[in-house]
Design brief:
Structural class of chain B: mainly alpha
CATH class of chain A: Mainly Alpha
CATH architecture of chain A: Up-down Bundle
Radius of gyration of chain A: 18 Å
Number of domains of chain B: 1
Strand content of chain B: under 5%
Number of strands of chain B: 0
Distance between the termini of chain B: 10 Å
Oligomer: heterodimer
Helix content of chain A: 55-70%
Structural class of chain A: mainly alpha
Number of domains of chain A: 1
Order of helices and strands of chain A: HHHHHHHH
Largest sheet of chain B: none
Radius of gyration of chain B: 15 Å
CATH topology of chain A: Ferritin
Chain lengths: ~190, ~80
C-alpha cells in the first residue's frame, strides 16, 4: 500500500503565470512518456519480474514517478493561477477550457487523452526493462525540450531536477537488466 | 506558512531525497556497506526532521509521529501545490 506525505519531492517555483508553458507541460502529465505512463508502467511490470532487485527497483521508481506527477501538476497549477479566461483563450487553452473548465486532465499538449497503449508489459523481463530504459531516455528528451521552451529560471530549476532523475533511473534500470540477464543465463533455459 | 515551517520542510525535502536516492542505489547494490551507512544516517535525519515538523507545523501523513490535531487538522494545513517555496 501507499502512504501519502503532504510534501513535494522537490520545491516547485515559477516566476510568473505562463499559459503556453502550462500547456506544453501536459506532455509530462498525460503524454506518452509522461509521469503517469511511467508510474503505471513500472507498478504493473513488477509482478512479472524474476529477481528481487528488479521487483524492488520497479516498486521504488514507480512510487517516485507518482511524486513527479504531483510536481508536474504543481507546475501547471502555479503557471495557470489567477489567469483570466481571455488570456487562456489567447494563449491556446480555450479548447481545454471548453471541455475541462480549469480542471487538470490526463491529456497531452494537443488534447489527446492518455491511453494504456502508451505503455507495455510483455512478461519478458528483458523486453520490459529495455522498454523502461527507452522510456527514461524519451522522458529525459522531453524535459530537455521543455527546458528549451521556457525562459523562466525558477521553472527550469524544477525541470532540470526531473531531467536528472530520468538519467538516474536509466542507470538503475540498466543495473537491474544486468542482474536479470545474469539470473536468466544461470537458469540456461533456452 | 510560517518561515520556520518552510525551513523545516525544505530541510526535510532535502534529506528525504537523499534517503530515496540511496534506496534506489541499494536496490541494485544491496551489499554496498558505505551506501548502507549513508542510508542509515539519512533515515535518522528524516525521522528527526519529520518529528520536529509534525510537532510544530502539522501532520505530514495521517498517522505520523504526531496524531492529527482535533478538529481534524489534516485538511487545514496547505497542500503541496499551494505552498510558495
Amino acid at each position: 500500500m501507499w502512504i501519502y506525505e503532504k510534501k513535494l519531492q522537490y520545491p516547485i517555483r515559477v516566476s510568473k503565470p505562463d499559459v503556453k508553458m502550462a500547456k506544453y507541460l501536459l506532455t509530462q502529465y498525460g503524454g506518452p512518456d509522461g509521469e503517469l505512463s511511467a508510474a503505471l508502467r513500472y507498478m504493473n511490470q513488477r509482478y512479472s519480474m524474476p529477481t528481487k532487485k528488479a521487483k524492488g527497483l520497479l516498486t521504488d521508481i514507480g512510487t517516485e514517478e507518482l511524486a513527479h506527477l504531483e510536481m508536474i501538476a504543481t507546475m501547471i497549477y502555479k503557471l495557470l493561477k489567477d489567469v483570466p479566461l481571455e488570456v487562456l483563450k489567447r494563449e491556446g487553452l480555450g479548447g481545454h477550457y471548453a471541455v475541462h473548465n480549469s480542471a487538470l486532465f490526463y491529456v497531452d499538449p494537443n488534447g489527446v487523452p492518455w491511453t494504456a497503449t502508451y505503455i507495455q508489459a510483455q512478461g519478458d523481463p528483458v523486453s520490459d526493462l529495455t522498454e523502461d530504459m527507452a522510456a527514461e531516455q524519451k522522458a529525459r528528451q522531453a524535459y530537455e525540450q521543455l527546458i528549451q521552451l521556457t525562459d523562466d529560471p525558477l521553472l527550469k530549476d524544477g525541470l532540470r531536477f526531473l531531467r536528472e532523475r530520468e538519467v538516474v533511473h536509466f542507470q538503475r534500470f540498466g543495473e537491474a537488466l544486468n542482474d536479470v540477464q545474469g539470473f536468466l543465463n544461470s537458469k540456461k533455459y533456452y | 506558512m510560517h518561515m520556520r515551517c518552510k525551513e523545516l520542510l525544505s530541510e526535510l525535502m532535502e534529506w528525504s531525497f537523499v534517503q530515496l536516492e540511496l534506496g534506489l542505489y541499494l536496490d541494485t547494490h544491496p551489499e554496498d556497506l558505505e551506501a548502507y551507512n549513508d542510508y542509515i544516517n539519512a533515515c535518522d535525519k528524516v525521522n528527526h526532521l519529520k518529528r520536529e515538523y509534525e510537532a510544530y507545523c502539522g501532520a505530514l501523513s495521517v498517522c505520523g509521529y504526531t496524531p492529527v490535531q482535533y478538529p481534524w487538522g489534516w485538511i487545514e494545513t496547505p497542500w503541496p501545490w499551494e505552498i510558495e517555496y
